[in-house]
Amino acid sequence: MSAPAQILKENLWTNNPIFMQILGICSALAVTNLLSNTMIMTIGVTFVTAMSNLTVSLLKSLIPRKVRMIVQTLIIAFYVIIVDILLRAYLPDISKALGPYVGLIITNCIIMGRAEAYAQANPPLISMWDGATSGFGYMAVLLVIAFFRELLGFGTLFGFQVLPDSFVPWTIMVTAPSAFFFLGAIIWAGKTIMNREGAPA
Amino acid sequence: MNRQSVIYTVIFTFLVSFVFVFILAFANEGTRELVAINQKINRQRAILNAMNVQYSGDEDVLKKYKDVKEVTRGDVTFYTTSVNGEPVFAKEFNGSGLWGNINGILAVNGDFTRVVGMEIINHNETPGLGGRIDEPWFKEQLRGEKIVDGTVRVGSAGDGDTDHDNGMIDAVTGASRTSDSVEVILSKELSVISDALGGKS
Amino acid sequence: MNAAPILNPFSLFVASIFTSNILLANFLGMCSFISISKDMTSSNGLGMAVTVVLTITAALNWVILHHVLIPLQVEYLRFIVFIITIAAVVQVLEMVIDRVSQALYMSLGIFLPLITVNCAILGVSLFMEIRNYTFVQSAIYGLGSGLGWWLAIMALAAIRKKTEKSKISPGLQGPGITVITIGFMAMAFVGFSGMLAVQ
User: Scanning every residue of chain A, which has its alpha carbon at the shortest distance from the alpha carbon of B131?
Assistant: First the structure.
């Protein structure tokens, strides 16, 4: 299997950032109550991860060892601010709904994790691909969680009423605990399937 | 130059920071006007919504808002216009929610017998719980709601009180604190409005 | 910008620990939460460190936001500035802990510098900015959030200790069951929401 395809498979499944590496949990739980928020958030994270991986890889031979983490953080913060500025200008309602969680993309361990684990040691284009696919892995899990939380908590999908009016929303889906339970279930499912396939857990 | 020396480290960090901040400043300036316009339209839209003025699209908001005048009664600033030949007075309010400020517009008819509507501009309540005061079903309760004993009361939790003559609206399920805050805001604002418009029976 | 909210300091303090626990209600600070809660002593140490960092950075970032960033009209740089402040405070704290207790320094290991990217710390600063808190409110919110985080990690560590020997299906072992446990804790904390009597 070619390198890019291998990376795609790993970041989407065998080494999925959320249910295998257990990274980036914070935002995974916070924005998944609505599919639209989740979509924008995950696109933002994918963008930032890809771009910061690209930048770190381009600059890796220039960055002094001592300030490696700080410079990485600066690069990540830079792209996050760009996303924040763009959201505020062009999608103000979503920007308000996401609130501080856009800024919190900076602390998303996935981004820092990929920069350290991959971009520091690999060429720019493939690093960017690694960043993008990690973002996709993150996106996939979050969309699944959000799908259930919005459907059962509000009766809608992407804001469109899907369930009939007679459906009484499950309020717990809107609050914190449900996100944890879904995440636990996904971790359980992912690991169990992988154990059966015999792949290293 | 030695990549690990102190001088290089300092120069590098400064250079990188400078480039980033420069680009960000550029992006920020470029979108500043757009953000300001968005905020202005948002505010005007809220005022029109509270006063139950129909509009279609953002261009129409700006147009319809031209008919709204600012007047001062007592020392209170009102936005006023005529809806279906009847005068409507709207006032901006800032009240305490559970988590912070609730900022919005409250509109009453000229003879202070009914609330014309309420719109929320900003709040920090919990999404899905207290945040539901910003949902259509909640705000719809206040459309044409009769003012009884100088206020509109918030009763027990429900799906939306369709009786507009009982001077009561339903609270949000699971958000008693925020619902109480709304009751306090209604009581205080209606009292201030009544004093300011005083003399109009 | 909105007016500063009129919040009873005591309510804010209690709310940030219980009803709007930074971890169980706002989902911030999860990564180290899940990994460190295996051991009670490190959890205790980390909880203390996070509380100290949270209180100091909430207050410090408020000062920087209102006396440097806003007057200069560069609020859009707040992410970078906040995180640099946090990194600096953590660095100083690291040096202090190293002096005061070698044992604690050893047991916290890599997690001390990782406090810098702990979303809870940056999150509190960002919430403080969005909600337009005053200086005092920010400090109280920082302290309360830290204590809430500490409380949560201690509780989770205690539960994990008790369930150490239990038989858990392989797919669920480790992070899986931990996350579900946190879910139950979060549910329990929702029950606190009736606690705040008068605003």
Answer: A97
